Structures are given as C-alpha cells and as structure tokens.
Amino acid sequence: MALRGRELRTTLAEDGTLTLSLEDVTVAAPGPDEIVVRVEAAPINPADLGLLLGPADVRTMESSGTGDRPVATFRLPREMLGGLRARTGQSLAVGNEGAGIVVAAGENAKALEGRRVAMVGGAMFADYRVLNAREALPLPDGATSAQGAAMFVNPLTALGFIETMRTEGHTAIVHTAAASNLGQMLQKLCLADGIPLVNIVRSDAQAEILRKIGATHVIDSRAEDFRKRLADAVAETGATLAFDAIGGGDIGSTILQAMEQAANRNATEYSRYGSNVFKQLYIYGALDPSPSTLNRMAFGFQWGVSGWLLFNFLRRAGAEANARMRRRISDELTTTFASTYTATIGLAEALRPEVLKAYERKATGEKYLIDPTRN
Fold first, then answer.
1. What DSSP element (H or E) covers 219?
2. Element (H, E) at 86
3. Residue 373: helix, strand or coil by DSSP?
4. Residue 333: Cβ within 10 Å count
5. Closest CA to 130 of 2, 43, 24, 310
6. How far, CA to CA in Å, does 200 sit from each of 221, 238, 284?
7. Which residues 6+ apart lie within 8 Å of 1 measured at CB?
8. Roughly what angle, to the nearest 10 degrees, separates helices 153-168 and 319-331?
9. Rounded to an integer, what distance in angstroms lies between the CA atom of residue 39 and that of residue 48?
10. Distance (Å, whole) CA 5 – CA 7
11. Which of 105, 128, 148, 369 could be cross-linked to 109 through a Cys-Cys bond (beta carbons 3.0 to 4.6 Å apart)?
12. What is the per-residue pLDDT across 229-243, written as a single tens digit (0 to 9) for each?
C-alpha cells in the first residue's frame, strides 16, 4: 500500500528566508506496530507556531504559488540566525497533535483499523500520518475528530499543572492568559478538585468567559487596582505557585511580588531577607516574546523561576501518572476538556496571508483547527 498526500513544511535557508509550503509525500505501508491515520483535524497551538514561524515577523510575509499550493516566505533578522543554526536547511513538518481515521494498520495494531483516534508526535498538519500505535488513543464512541484533535497538549498541560502543584507541596495556583482553551480546562479541573485558582486576564470579555464556568478569582491586568486585587486574591487562596503563558515583561515579577505581599500580611517580625514562604513561577509560554524582567528585591529571597515544558514533565511523571491523566481526559473529553475553535480551515488555507496573520496574533480565545479533508 502506498498513499500520496500533502504535508505542511517549514524551511529556513542560510540567508534567513523562512518558507512555508505544502509538499507532496508518499506514505509507506505501516510497520508491525504502526498505523496510518487519515488526518481529519489538527489544532494550531502556540507551541506549533514556534516551529512553524519561529521568530519570523509576519509583516515581512510574501505570498506566491497557486491556490492549492500556496507558498509563504518571511525574512528573519540576521542576528537571530545564530540560535537557529541547527534547523537551517531542513524541511520540517509541523503540528503536535491531531485526530483522524486509521486507514491501515500493521499486524500488531489491527484492532485500531477503522477506528477514530487522537494522536500526538508531530507532523500532524498533513493528509496522512504514520505513527506507532502507542502514540494514538482511540476516541470514545460518538466523539468526532474535531473533539479529539486537542486531546493531548492542552488537557495534559492543565493536568500537569495540578500534578506539579501536588508534587511540590503547593495548594493553589495563579495562571495568566487564563481565558484560553487551556485556561478554561484548568479552571474546570480546579473547581472539580477543590483547588483555589487565581485567573489573570486582559479584558472584560475574557473575565466573563471564566465567570460563566464558575471562576471565583478573575483579575483584569489592565485595571488600575490590578496589583492590589492580585495580592488580595493570593492572600485569600494561599497561592504560592504560578504558571505564566505570557513570558515577556514584568507579569511574572508582579505575581511573585503579590505572593510576597500576601505572605507578609501574616508576618510577626520583620526580616530584611523577606518572608520564609517559598514562591515558584513557571514560564510555559511566550505570548510576549520580549525579555522577562524580575524586580527581585520586591519579593525576598525565597523564590524560584523556571521553564515548564509539557513533554519534559511527562517524561518525569512516569507511566502510571501518564496513564491516569489519559484516562481522565478520555472520560471527560466532551466536558472538562472540550475545545472551541474560531474557524476550521484546510491545509492550503493555513498558508493564506490573512489566516497566518490571524493565528500568529496568539489572541486569547482565537484558536484555529486544520481539517486537511477540506482541500
């Protein structure tokens, strides 16, 4: 068996030209433990944009090609090329996760043939995906590919935040960009598990999204009294752990300062080294690519700042925790872990200028789903 299909690829040339294109590929017959999936849905996550576009400025975009084989090119600043040397000259496939129908299976994976599955492992922005059967998860009866397409990255991230909280001995969480699909999942999980959550948003509309699902602490970072309200919410919840999707600017520093202020409300004596309450900030996103700034004298010396990456967490968590989290996702796929999309687009549409500019904005509440069967 040999199938022909398209694959969305990103290629960085030595001169700093980044090219996005649809390439024709031949899909070989699956090995004994492999399956071939006809992709029906794949979400565009912020993590995908890091590979798809990298640090490219969409204002430099030029379009060429044809309607069914569009090409988009960008220019990268020369000073950024040093850090991207490892990918120079490579044509890389994109898309962390997706869902579709198993159209062929190796001898050890025949039970999946004809089943609709969710999958993770990269190269999902394509007509077909060959992967090891263990990287796919059968969807519950009646679930659509669109419902299962985002079954891994956001759900496992939300559950990973809670696992991290429990493992490290924290009891409450602060989360930024909290009205996203991920943020809504986290809020639902925290409500179900009795975990206090402080949500930071950037508009009244985003705040309303969270309040409709039962959020208690929702704070608009644009409000004049933002810092006071944040400190009050942290004091009320006892939050000493934060997950920041923004990355750039001083939002992380502001959160740590609020935690220190909350801790000092109960202090019985002064210490020039700050409180003895440990505060942890994890940066897991880069919605703002500018440098992160820390006013370290504002929150004492009991703190930590680190990166948090889902795939590193999953490796550390172990098989039992991974299996437990996947079971919960499957059980609550259409409730707790339901995703909403701004629009569903085809593979060729994903390279149209207006579409590229839309999802490159990384706006909260805007999420695109690729359905390769559309074109």
1. strand 217-220
2. none
3. helix
4. 21
5. 2
6. 6, 16, 15
7. 29, 36, 104
8. 130
9. 16
10. 7
11. 105
12. 999 999 999 999 999
pLDDT for position 266 = 81
Give the three-class secondary structure for 226. Answer: helix
4-42 in b/e burial notation, b at 16+ Cβ within 10 A?
ebbbbbbbbeeebebbbbbeebebeebeeebbbbbbbbb
C-alpha distances in Å from residue 295, one per residue of 29, 36, 235, 281, 292:
56, 51, 20, 13, 10
Q: What is the pLDDT of residues 10-51, one digit of tens each?
A: 999 988 899 999 999 999 899 999 999 999 999 998 889 888
Query: What single letter denotes the amino acid at residue 114?
Result: G
Helix (H, G, I), strand (E, B) or coil at 117: strand
> pLDDT of 286-323, one tens digit each?
889 899 999 999 999 999 999 999 999 999 999 999 99
Q: Which two tokens stand for residue 160?
A: 């990973």
For the chain, state the CA radius of gyration.
Answer: 22
* C-beta of residue 283 within 8 angstroms of C-beta of residue 323: no
What tokens does 307 get?
A: 């990166």
- Estimate to the nearest angstrom the gap between the alpha carbon of 238 and the chain centroid: 26
CATH number of 3-150+339-374: 3.90.180.10
Tell me the one-letter amino acid at 216: T
Q: Rounded to 5 degrees, what are φ and ψ at 320?
A: -65, -45
Place of tokens 């202020």: 261
Angle, helices 204-212 vs 181-193, to 10°: value is 40
Give the position of tokens 């299962």.
148
DSSP 126: B
Q: Which of 5, 8, 4 is nearest to 370 (CA)?
A: 8
Task: Decide if 207 contacts 218 (C-beta within 8 A).
Answer: yes
Measured CA to CA, the distance from residue 366 to residue 285 in angstroms comes to 16
Start-to-end Cα distance in the chain: 23
**Domain map of the chain by residue range?**
3-150+339-374, 153-313
Closest to 137 (Cα-Cα) out of 152, 126, 153 = 152
